[in-house]
C-alpha cells in the first residue's frame, strides 16, 4: 500500500486500485513493450484523474471543518470525512458535486493544453488523450444515480432521508439497466460486474430499511 499526503490530506492507495485500473486499461491483451508502456501511461493518467476527483470532495469537506482522508481502491476510491459540526443537506450536496465538477474541469484544461503543442510526441499525446478521456468518462459515470456513486449521493440528498426506499429502488433499477446496456454495447464484463455489485448493495440496504 502506498501512503502520502497532499494539501495535508492523508492519501492511501491500495494494491487493488492498480490491478483494476490495469485491467480496465487492457492489461490482459498487452503482449508487446509498446502495449505495456501504454498500460503504464493509463495507470498514471487514471491515478491523477481519480485523485483530483477525490480531492474535490476532500478539500470541500475540509473547508466545512471536517477531518478528511482519501483512499484509492478497486474501481476508484472515496474521500472519507468526520468530526466537526453536522452538515446541512446543501453542504453535503456541495461536497458530493465537487468531485465530478473538478474532474470535468481537469478534462477541459487537458483538452485545451493538448491543442497548444503540434510537435508533441505520440506518447505524450496518448497520455493527454487518456487523461482527459478518463476525466470525462469517470465524471459522467459518477453522476449516474446509483449508490454509492456521486450521482446516487446527489439523488439521496435531493430526495432526503424520508424517501430512502425510493432512492434505493432507483439505484437498483439504474444499476441493472446500465450493467445490461454496458454488456450489450462493449461485450465486456467489467461494467456489468461493477454495476451488479452496486445493485446488490442497494438491495441489501433496502432490505435493512424495510425491516426497521
Q: Roughly what is the average pLDDT, rounded to an integer?
A: 89
Residue share in β-strands: 5-15%
Q: How do the helices and strands follow one another from N- to C-terminus?
A: EEHHEEHHHHH
The DSSP helix count reads 7
Shape: globular
Low-confidence parts: none
Query: For the terminal residues, how far apart are their CA atoms?
Result: 38 Å
| Arrangement of strands in the largest sheet | 1-2-3-4
Q: What is the helix content?
A: 55-70%
Would you count the extended β strands for me? 4
The number of domains: 2
Helix-and-strand structural type: alpha+beta
Would you kindly provide a written description of the structure presented here, covering whatever features stand out?
- The protein is built from 7 helices and 4 strands, in the order E-E-H-H-E-E-H-H-H-H-H.
- With 212 residues, it is α+β, with helices and mostly antiparallel strands.
- The chain folds into 2 domains: 1-138, no CATH class; 144-207, no CATH class.
- A hairpin with a 2-residue loop joins strand 3 and strand 4 (76-82).
- Helix 2 packs antiparallel against helix 3, helix 3 runs antiparallel to helix 4 and helix 5 (150-159) runs antiparallel to helix 6.
Amino acid at each position: 500500500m502506498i501512503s502520502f499526503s497532499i494539501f495535508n490530506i492523508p492519501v492511501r492507495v491500495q494494491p487493488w486500485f492498480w490491478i483494476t485500473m490495469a485491467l480496465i486499461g487492457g492489461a490482459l491483451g498487452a503482449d508487446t513493450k509498446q502495449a505495456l508502456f501504454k498500460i503504464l501511461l493509463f495507470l498514471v493518467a487514471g491515478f491523477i484523474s481519480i485523485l483530483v476527483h477525490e480531492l474535490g470532495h476532500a478539500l470541500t469537506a475540509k473547508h466545512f471543518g471536517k477531518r478528511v482522508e482519501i483512499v484509492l481502491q478497486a474501481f476508484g476510491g472515496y474521500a472519507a470525512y468526520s468530526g466537526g459540526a453536522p452538515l446541512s443537506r446543501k453542504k453535503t450536496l456541495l461536497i458530493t458535486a465537487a468531485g465530478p465538477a473538478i474532474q470535468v474541469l481537469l478534462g477541459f484544461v487537458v483538452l485545451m493544453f493538448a491543442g497548444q503543442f503540434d510537435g508533441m510526441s505520440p506518447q505524450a499525446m496518448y497520455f493527454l488523450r487518456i487523461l482527459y478521456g478518463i476525466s470525462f468518462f469517470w465524471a459522467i459515470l459518477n453522476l449516474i444515480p446509483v449508490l454509492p456513486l456521486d450521482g446516487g449521493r446527489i439523488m439521496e440528498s435531493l430526495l432526503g432521508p424520508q424517501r430512502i426506499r425510493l432512492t434505493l429502488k432507483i439505484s437498483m433499477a439504474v444499476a441493472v439497466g446500465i450493467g445490461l446496456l454496458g454488456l450489450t454495447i462493449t461485450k465486456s464484463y467489467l461494467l456489468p460486474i461493477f454495476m451488479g455489485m452496486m445493485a446488490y448493495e442497494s438491495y441489501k440496504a433496502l432490505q435493512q430499511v424495510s425491516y426497521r
